[in-house]
Amino acid sequence: MNLKMLTRALSAVGGAGLLLFAASALAVPESEWRRPWALNLPQGVTSLSEQVYNLHMLVFWIVCIIGLIVFFGVFYSVWKFRKSVGAVPAQWHHSTTVEIIWTVIPFLILLFIAIPATQTMVKIDDTSDYDMTVKVTGYQWMWEYEYLDEDISFFSRLDRDSDRARQRNPEIRPQDVEHYLLNVDNPLVVPVNTRIRFLLTANDVIHAWWVPELGWKKDAIPGFINEAWAEIREPGVYRGQCAELCGRDHGFMPIVVVALEQDDYEAWVDEQVNGNGEAEETAEVADEDNGEVAEQEDMSMDELMSVGERVYGNQCLACHQAEGQGMATFPALAGNDQVIEDREWVKDVIINGVSGTAMQAFGNRLNDEEIAGVVTYIMNAWGNDSGEEVQPADIRAAR
Amino acid sequence: MSSTTHDAHHDHHDHAPPKGMTRWLFTTNHKDLGVLYMVFALIMFFVGGAMAMVIRAELFQPGLNLVDPHFFNQMTTMHALVMIFGAVMPAFTGLANWLIPVQIGAPDMALPRVNNWAFWLLPAGFVLLLLTLFMPGGGPAGGWTMYPPLVLQLGDAFPFLIFAVHVLGISSIMGSINIVATILNMRAPGMTLMKMPLFVWAWLITAFLIVAVMPVLAGAVTMLLTDQYFGTSFFSAAGGGDPVMFQHIFWFFGHPEVYILILPAFGIVSAIIPTFARKPLFGYSSMVYATASIAFLSFIVWGHHMFSVGMPLAGQLFFMYATMLVAVPTGVKIFNWMATMWQGSMTFETPMLFAIAFVILFTIGGLSGVMLALAPVDLQYHDTYFVVAHFHYVLVSGAIFSIMAGVYYWLPKWTGHMYDERLGKWHFWLSMVSVNVLFFPQHFLGLAGMPRRIPDYALQFAEFNMISSIGGFAFGLSQLIFLWVIIKCVRGGEKASDQVWEGAKGLEWTLPSPAPYHTFETPPVVK
Ligand code: HEM
Ligand SMILES: [Cu+2]
Ligand SMILES: [Cu+2]
Fold it and tell me: What phi and psi values does residue B3 have, to the nearest 5 degrees?
């Protein structure tokens, strides 16, 4: 079974992706740094992140001491030199000596900080000597990971539970979702003790890829490729978020990195590439599921519309607007005759996009149910009332 | 005899203000314009504050409770634009208008008609900007930094945003040229540059910064406009351009801009502390030199906003070292204020309370600035709530506290009445406590991994966000006291003496309170 079929099968299962299942089955520990009332940067899990953390603590203590000197000086004056306790004002207003002292000493302190800062910066910047490369592409609003040395690539999106809980009138409460907004369907799986080079870019607007425990963030810029690196020392699940404002759902494109022991990682790669062993079994399950979906056949109109409304809100609304009225170069969908009459065309546009425009292909980002839902939704919402019901099976056939 | 004691009633050479609306519409009087600027700034402070309340209300709890994320983004974007260009800058310009002529012994600003036009462009620009919120697709939502390509996704509001920025830019440039011309040409005999009050010095330098960088901003947004409508590709890789180039140009404006927002504050605090410490300012000339070097350095540090864009190592290091250097003159200023208080004889009226709070809280912001200056760690801090905490410490408890200090300090001179000291103290203490409840926990949030500009967050951030929001609401409500004190003081109150404050020194305190409509028509002689 090739990768494309596998990912398709996976997306058909929906819900928590299989990739995550594979990883969590190995019981990779959650990082302890992420917890309520957390106050500080993480020490992290790479030699780089530890160095960054140490620099942070060094400068933190230095500024605390300077701050305390200033506060103490001010409060002492306020206490001691009050008119109400009979303080008589001196009239001096100049002293070259002290002025030189408080210019030179801060300068020396800065010099002292600059040395480790420079060393750390040089180390961060050195992306040579890598063992493997992962290309990270930011999209509005998900990430794509491509393993350049393997035939593996997939999209990574906000997990379904978080997605349900983050709606305006949610079916489930954020409080009931584990790792709310910090969980994805398909995490990035990497091996420990391996120098990984990241190549970062974006497809639409600027994003920034940030996992605090790796010690850095880096912008993902459309048309350019940035480099960064990490060598993770401990197996574990490390979570992060997009850190550059990228539009409506900027807050909803988390990052999850699952670091595995070398052997486990290789098994995972094997699963992805060859669909071997366990993965094949699960993939078969997926196939069965697939069958089931086909047999279940029709989703009800209500189901289609509610899935469609959610997908529309997350993927389409930013351009085509809340009432489908469109905006500037983004065409209106409400009252659009072609949308109302030509379901084949609508399916095609959503699956394959329209080249040369901002309309992207959603075929590999949304599963059959989601596309079926959103096609049905736009053909019926806002008075379009075509009465058309497009089922997941139709979408599968059209892919 | 100076014209300050001139009796306007027996003179018809337009010495008394005309009545009604036209007085304000056509006025070229620096005091009228100063008042207009300040009233405008106060209104914008509440408009921007209302937006901040929406932001803090949405962030009160996890989940999308109140607004759509797209609207949330409009709020963060507009909040920043309104506060920077609508509240802080006009408030400083208003203070400059009112005070610079009376502090240097000039009868008015050098270019009174320019002054009128510069002011009236402001409400026009802001009406334009605020109305975009009601356009299809909503107002600007890509952040006040307007980074492409995101900003190009803005709908019908896009050209209005650009045009509004141009209008506001022209207004500040004209205002600044006027200030430079006034300071350089209109000083009273004997008022040498090194005798000028520090507020005047700070504004002279600020005005040069504005004249230097506002056109750069105008250029940057014009390039956005042509990218959007005229087929250029300055910022689009597909056409051979570079989105990062926008950031370079923007921050070449943007970093000096943050100093535009703080240098006048330094001037105000340097006026207030000596008055209430009853002791001359320590190190006047080093204050001037420190201000000038901060202004110079501000042109070569812009890259510290962009450590994560992938600059070459040499660039990162250069911007890191240059930014660290800023801490030296900034430190000098803080130490000078401390030395001014040392062995003084202090009293703690509201202006002094705000000034002391400024020294302490601005220091916190400056120190977190030093942390942010370190490129390798900024890769962690950048675009998190740690940065949000940093710039609110320097802007709210820095710039805005200084403005409030200044308003309390000069209000008796403007109105002729003492403000209500008891209410002023309430305003101070409530603001002082709530501003820290509001912003201090944001340091923790940022370090613990919360990105900025997000409408909803992971459950681990719930506690500190709730605390911060409570602080926010308290701070917002406390400002109503400020409004009330001002209204009350304009309407009446204990009669203010000419000098108002026992320790006050400078030409403005030789004038009657309220100062007459025209002052120093015959220049005073400064010894
Ligand atoms: C010792 C002095 C200061 C230093 C070393 C400093 C340093 C920095 C650095 C490195 C950043 C970028 C952080 C990031 O985005 O990762 C920053 C952001 C910022 N600073 Fe400062 N700063 C100082 C003082 C000030 C002052 C006086 C102001 C204004 C009154 C100010 C306002 C801002 C603002 C508004 C931002 C954020 C801009 C944005 O991204 O929206 N800073 N500062
Ligand atoms: Cu993003
Ligand atoms: Cu800056």
Answer: -70, -5
The 10s digit of each residue's pLDDT in A368-382 is 888 999 999 999 988
pLDDT tens track for B88-118: 999 999 999 999 999 999 999 999 999 999 9
Contact residues, chain A, for B236 at CB < 8 Å:
223
Whether the CB of A359 is below 8 Å from some CB of chain B: the reply is no
CATH number belonging to the domain at A20-83+96-125, selected among 1.10.3720.10, 1.10.287.90, 1.20.1250.20, 3.40.50.300: 1.10.287.90
- Whether residue A11 contacts residue A367, with contact meaning beta carbons closer than 8 Å, is answered with yes
Residue of B278, B324, B458 lying closest to A89 (CB–CB): B278
- Minimal-distance CA residue of chain B relative to A238: B449
Residues counted in chain A = 399
Q: What are phi and psi of B511, to 5 degrees?
A: -85, 155
Question: Best residue in A47, A105, A125, A197 to probe B by mutation, most B CBs within 10 Å?
Answer: A125
Q: Is B278 on the interface with A (CB under 8 A)?
A: yes
* ipTM field: 0.92
Q: How far apart (Å, rounded) are the C-alpha atoms in residues A270 and A259?
A: 16
Supply the Cα-derived Rg of chain B in whole angstroms.
23
- pTM assigned to the model: 0.87
Residues A70-121 pLDDT 10s: 999 999 999 999 999 888 888 888 889 999 999 999 999 999 999 999 999 9
- Closest listed residue to residue B256, CA positions, set B207, B309, B223, B289: B207
Question: What residues of chain A lie within 8 A of the CB of B457, using their CB?
Answer: 181, 251
Architecture of the domain delimited by A132-282: Sandwich (2.60)
Provide the pLDDT for residue A312.
85
Interface test with B, best of A163, A200, A219, A252 (most B CBs within 10 A): A219
Q: How many CB atoms lie within 10 A of CB B190?
A: 12
Helix H or strand E encompassing A184: none
Q: Give B-chain residues touching A249 at CB under 8 angstroms.
A: 69
**Would residue B492 count as lying in a domain?**
yes
Q: Is B297 exposed, middle or buried (0-12, 13-18, 19+ CB in 10 A)?
A: buried
Domain annotation covers residue B8: no
Percentage above 90 pLDDT, chain A: 52
- Confirm or reject contact between B144 and chain A (CB < 8 A): no
Residue A228: its pLDDT value, please?
A: 95
Is B237 an interface residue toward A (CB < 8 Å)?
A: yes
